[in-house]
């Protein structure tokens, strides 16, 4: 077997195809990188075309070996683990070589980095279930987050169930993609640029009510900023209503908001979903 | 009075209640309704206030008018404070609009006793019914049962709420007599018993009929005030254990008493709330609920209070050094849980991992074991950490040093910092 670097299109299917082709070509991979991140090295490289059929075969095989491993691979692909593709590739290789027995041992050197990254992803998603803040933009709920991991596919089920009869979108600033939900349908689409519309009077009033509630509920004799920071790291504060400055709580009727209520730039009018495009790289096959 | 001012007054009056969880709820999304409460077993914190406490629910009082005159309470009749009351519509509107914006997981509704316990409970029922039926709210509701209210009203409240709670507040009858002359132990325990029996009955009905109405499906909880009376930790922990055993409570909350009034029977105004003591009680509470400890193992008549220097589990371990070291490859689950630095998750990980092969010391941190504490109390494949030498004395010092950075250090300036916010 020869050592190789594979390049793929950045989608989950593309990654599974790298696994498929490494077996088909009898090659051991030293790195897997996205087409746009590829830097020529001393190792031989190969560009892997994405074939949904191959991806499905690899995924079904992993599920057959261990459904939990399949979940790890699917979720592991969403994490911010550096070189996550090669870690996941090694996990799949070990699974196919040895069977699922080693998965019980969380301290296994191949499993540990993936399991830890997935725990980080799930922890972040769990915190964000609470920390996400929506604004009512003329009947459509809109929110923004800045997560380290790609949490939108994890959050999708939760928020769709919670706001079953609402229309909402949630924009991920870090990965420049958004989750849209309307009329029982949800989808995740890349979105290069996004600006939240300013609040109308009603929205500003509820923001202020919440800020007041937040400030009042604290008992000053128990002031404990360290405990707060441990439970709610500062990197989440950016998108949370209660930590915004004064301008966030005053209603502004900008021309854009008046002419098209609830539809900030880049977001289609309420009630319509964006045109179907290529599926987001985050979604599972 | 506008809603903003009412919210301020009624939040300020409700903030001393410690309970703010949405755990145990099991409302899945329903068509035509807003909300679900099935996120996970652990509940969902929506923010943390400046005192580091989780904010999950919109925690407010229906009204802070009160006919009682409990000495420890800010809302007592004799206190000169602004009074306000929400209308059911205002409350429902606030809840729905906060919920839609994902500020909260639901409503925590408590109340001062306005006119009579029955009248207050009826007011609460009216608000909750409006919220559930007209506003079609399917999120979490925690309602406070007012001691002395008619059983029929408590029953109605239980079908609207996910969790009910009756606050015991003062851990002994003597304290109750001295500080809350309008309340009796009987008046507090009667609704608790009723809620437990009705909850049990509802579970049995649910097993027979799938659509039987659920009575307080997330169970009941209570709160004890720590530091207002002279009750020691042993007394409080025994009471807690009795509540878990006999009343099947989901949680007992502890609230360090914050002096709000000058009174001969209460700690002076300048006494700091006993936060460390409260912390130790919570640690012990976890040991009772998840680690299989009993109150009499942790404290006895000779040591009726917790050691402020080390946590209750370390304290127990120091008193039972003959139990250790525990060999992680051989010990059963219950023994693993007794090791300081090993928790429920890491004990389970150890059980799963050792099926694949013998465990060594270097595996343990990856399984979630906190070696700073655990290293003194365990062996892995017969080995302890390299160069680990200790006497009971240096062991105690090591454990104190391991916990110190985790505890809050309260310097005086911080109060003024808060005032500037």
Write the layout of secondary structure elements.
The complex is a heterodimer of chains A (285) and B (421).
Chain A: E1 2-8, H1 12-24, E2 27-34, E3 44-47, H2 52-65, H3 67-76, H4 84-98, H5 111-131, E4 134-137, E5 140-145, H6 152-162, E6 167-172, E7 177-182, E8 185-190, H7 201-217, H8 225-231, H9 255-259
Helix pairs in contact in A: 1-2, 2-3, 3-5, 5-6
Chain B: H1 3-12, E1 47-48, E2 54-55, E3 57-61, H2 88-100, E4 106-110, H3 117-134, E5 140-144, H4 151-160, E6 163-165, H5 173-179, H6 185-208, E7 220-226, H7 233-247, E8 251-256, H8 275-290, H9 295-298, H10 312-319, E9 326-327, H11 333-337, H12 344-353, H13 371-374, E10 378-379, H14 392-403, H15 414-420
Parallel strand pairs in B: 3-4, 4-5, 5-6, 6-7, 7-8, 9-10
Antiparallel strand pairs in B: 1-2
Helix pairs in contact in B: 2-3, 3-4, 4-6, 7-8
């Amino acid at each position: 077997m020869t050592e190789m670097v594979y390049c793929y299109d950045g989608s989950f299917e593309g990654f599974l195809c790298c696994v498929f082709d490494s077996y088909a070509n009898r090659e051991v991979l030293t790195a897997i990188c996205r087409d746009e991140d590829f830097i020529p090295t001393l190792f031989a490289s190969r560009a892997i075309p994405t074939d949904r059929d191959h991806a499905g075969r690899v995924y079904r095989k992993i599920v057959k070996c261990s459904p939990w491993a399949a979940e790890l691979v699917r979720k592991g692909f969403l994490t911010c683990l550096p070189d996550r593709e090669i870690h996941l590739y090694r996990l799949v290789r070990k699974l196919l070589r040895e069977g699922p027995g080693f998965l019980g041992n969380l301290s296994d050197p191949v499993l540990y980095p993936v399991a830890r990254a997935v725990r980080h992803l799930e922890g972040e998603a769990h915190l964000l279930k609470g920390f996400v803040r929506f604004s009512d933009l003329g009947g459509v709920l809109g929110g923004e987050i800045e997560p380290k991991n790609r949490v939108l596919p994890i959050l999708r089920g939760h928020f769709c169930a919670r706001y079953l009869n609402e229309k909402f979108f949630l924009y991920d600033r870090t990965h420049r993609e958004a989750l849209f939900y309307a009329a029982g349908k949800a989808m995740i689409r890349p979105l290069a640029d996004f600006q939240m519309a300013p609040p109308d009077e009603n929205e500003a009033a509820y923001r202020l009510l919440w800020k007041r509630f937040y400030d009042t509920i604290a008992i000053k004799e128990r002031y404990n900023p360290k405990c707060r920071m441990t439970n709610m790291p500062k990197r989440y504060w950016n998108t949370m209503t209660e930590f915004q400055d004064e301008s966030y709580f005053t209603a502004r009727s900008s021309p854009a908001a008046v002419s098209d209520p609830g539809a900030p730039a880049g977001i289609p009018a309420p009630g319509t979903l964006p045109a179907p495009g290529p599926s987001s790289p985050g979604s599972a096959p | 009075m506008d809603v903003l001012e009412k919210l301020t007054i009624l939040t300020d009056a409700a903030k001393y209640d410690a309970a703010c969880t949405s755990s145990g709820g099991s409302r899945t999304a329903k068509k035509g309704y807003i909300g679900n409460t099935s996120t996970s077993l652990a509940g969902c914190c929506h923010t943390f206030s400046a005192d580091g406490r989780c904010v999950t629910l919109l925690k407010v009082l229906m009204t802070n008018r009160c006919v009682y005159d409990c000495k420890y309470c800010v809302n007592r009749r004799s206190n000169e404070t602004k009074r306000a009351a929400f209308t059911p519509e205002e409350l429902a509107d606030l809840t729905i609009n906060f919920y839609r914006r994902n500020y909260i997981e639901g409503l925590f509704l408590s109340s001062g006793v306005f006119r009579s316990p029955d009248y207050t409970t009826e007011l609460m029922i009216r608000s909750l019914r409006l919220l559930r039926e007209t506003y079609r709210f399917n999120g979490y509701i925690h309602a406070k049962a007012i001691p002395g209210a008619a059983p029929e009203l408590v029953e109605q409240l239980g079908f609207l709420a996910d969790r009910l709670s009756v606050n015991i507040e003062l851990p002994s009858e003597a304290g109750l007599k001295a500080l809350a002359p309008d309340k009796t132990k009987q008046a507090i325990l009667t609704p608790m018993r009723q809620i437990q029996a009705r909850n049990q009955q509802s579970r049995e009905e649910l097993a027979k009929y799938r659509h039987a109405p659920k009575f307080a499906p997330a169970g009941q909880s209570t709160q004890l005030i720590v530091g207002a009376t002279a009750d020691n930790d042993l007394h409080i922990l025994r009471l807690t254990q009795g509540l878990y055993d006999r009343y099947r409570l989901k949680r007992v909350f502890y609230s360090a008493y914050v002096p709000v009034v000058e009174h001969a029977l209460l700690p002076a105004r300048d006494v700091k709330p006993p936060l460390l003591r409260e912390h130790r009680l919570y640690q012990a509470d976890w040991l009772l609920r998840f680690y299989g400890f009993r109150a009499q193992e942790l404290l006895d008549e000779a040591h009726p209070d917790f050691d402020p220097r080390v946590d209750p589990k370390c304290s127990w371990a120091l008193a039972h050094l003959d139990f250790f070291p525990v060999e992680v490859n051989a010990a059963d689950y219950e023994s693993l849980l007794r090791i300081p630095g090993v928790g429920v998750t890491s004990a389970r990980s150890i059980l799963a991992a050792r099926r694949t092969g013998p465990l060594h010391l270097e595996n343990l941190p990856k399984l979630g074991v906190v070696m700073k504490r655990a290293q003194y109390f365990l062996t892995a494949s017969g080995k302890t950490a390299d160069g680990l030498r200790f006497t009971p004395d240096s062991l105690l010092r090591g454990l104190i040093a391991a916990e110190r950075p985790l505890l809050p250090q309260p310097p005086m300036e911080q109060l003024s910092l808060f005032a500037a916010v």
